[in-house]
Design a protein that fits this description.
With 409 residues, the protein is of the alpha/beta class. The protein is 35% helix and 14% strand.
């Protein structure tokens, strides 16, 4: 691959005749319509910042002045994937606070911006489920349930300015079902509230977590979450690690409220974050993912919605470099953690998605099958943005709502 390519492949008709030609012609017509809509939506978005390319090794435990950043990254990637349980380790926060339906706590990962280091989440309890109106204080999870305590002495666990806390979860008290909802890149505060209320109708409590650098966590002067997916190698690694750690801390809060059947629902980058969370957190019983890809870097280098990011990187790294450097924040390296677990998975994708291209989805599905991982899938005749419009959003919503209700019992 040579980076971003947004266009249509030629179709060869020489071996087709009659109804076959009609079918292929209609298929290509739909594809062109979908891609035209996707491009229109992309062009309608606010002006995108073009941040400068940076190696950003200072965000992952290195030095900004590193003489050979490529060598550092190669070593970092290998060690991080091998020690991912430590890198993604998380403990309950010490300062959970619920006011109204807004949950806040301090992120375990300390980024350079204070605004980003306070996590915000919106709590949508199902009928009959209600946490205390206001609560603050230390975790109630006993220390004997905390695993991975050696992480504090592990350099991988300390990378990216983290605090090196261990991971673990306590048995909950049987309150019911809850799902952490993770929206797409640049989602606003009010987006996907409807998804949470739909889950409520299915009898499931929902907590929508604001991703790093989004809405109330935004850096002053940045309307978009430019630093979650940035032309800065190390910062993007740190930001996505922070997202996973924040989600795991939210799961611990749900356990403290007594929820004992937990799931994740992610869209686009939220799908990637949710998938990695599922791989590393044994409390997650079910995951529904809208859009899926093998590697984070493949999407950025080839996708429509990340053109402004890749343009700043293309002179410094190849798509293959980016795939490798950002593999610690990609689903594929962690598939080996899933076999043998009692997990339910649903992946919903767009057949004509110009951001999560179909070959990236197909590659993930094939790899999951090779690992013996059981999952369900639904591929709709839409793209990336268009999965969120009628009729596709209703089909997807019905499918993941029913799936999560059944999977969480």
């Amino acid at each position: 691959m040579q980076g971003f390519r947004y266009g249509l492949r030629a179709t060869h008709y020489s071996r087709l005749s009659g109804s076959g030609i009609i079918f292929v012609t209609m298929k290509n017509w739909i594809k062109r319509k979908v891609h035209a809509y996707e491009k229109m939506r992309f062009d309608q978005e606010p002006v995108r910042a073009k941040l400068p390319f940076e190696w950003g090794l200072e965000h992952i435990g290195g030095e900004a002045s590193e003489r050979d950043p490529r060598k550092y990254l190669e070593t970092f990637v290998a060690e991080t994937i091998a020690g991912s349980d430590a890198w993604y380790a998380s403990r309950p926060a010490q300062d959970y606070k619920l006011e109204g339906n807004v949950l806040t706590f301090t992120s375990a990962i300390n980024s350079p911006w204070a605004e980003n280091n306070r996590v915000y989440a919106q709590y949508f309890p199902a009928s009959g489920d209600k946490a205390a109106a206001t609560q603050t204080g230390r975790s109630s999870v006993p220390e004997r349930h905390v695993a991975g305590h050696a992480a504090a002495s592990n350099p991988i666990a300390r990378a990216a300015n983290g605090n090196g806390q261990g991971s673990g979860h306590a048995p909950a008290q049987g309150k019911g079902r809850a799902v952490v909802v993770l929206a797409q890149w640049n989602a606003r505060w009010d987006e996907q509230q409807g998804v949470c209320k739909w889950l409520n109708k299915m009898g499931i409590t929902a907590v929508k977590v604001s991703l790093p650098y989004h809405d109330r966590r935004a850096i002053p002067g940045h309307r978009r979450a430019d630093h979650l997916v940035a032309p800065n190698i190390g910062l993007t690694l740190q930001a996505n690690r922070q997202a996973v750690v924040d989600v795991r801390a939210t799961l611990r809060w749900l356990e403290q409220q007594g929820y004992d059947r937990l799931g994740v629902l992610g869209t686009s980058i939220g799908s990637c974050i949710g998938f990695i969370t599922m791989c590393h957190d044994p409390a997650v019983r079910a995951g529904a993912f809208l859009h899926a890809s093998m590697y984070f870097g493949d999407v950025v280098a080839n996708g429509l919605t990340t053109v402004n990011v890749w343009e700043q990187m293309a002179r410094h790294v190849t798509p293959e470099d980016l795939q490798r450097y950002w593999s610690p924040i990609s689903p594929l390296p962690y598939l080996n953690k899933l076999p043998g677990r009692d997990l339910k998975m649903l992946l919903i994708t767009g057949k004509y998605d110009p951001t999560f291209w179909p070959e990236f989805t197909d590659g993930l599905f094939a790899s999951m099958r090779r690992e013996g991982i059981d999952f369900k899938s639904l591929r709709l005749p839409c793209g990336h943005y268009s999965l969120g419009i009628t009729p596709f959003k209703h089909v997807a919503g019905y499918r993941f709502g029913k799936f999560l209700a059944e999977a969480l019992g």
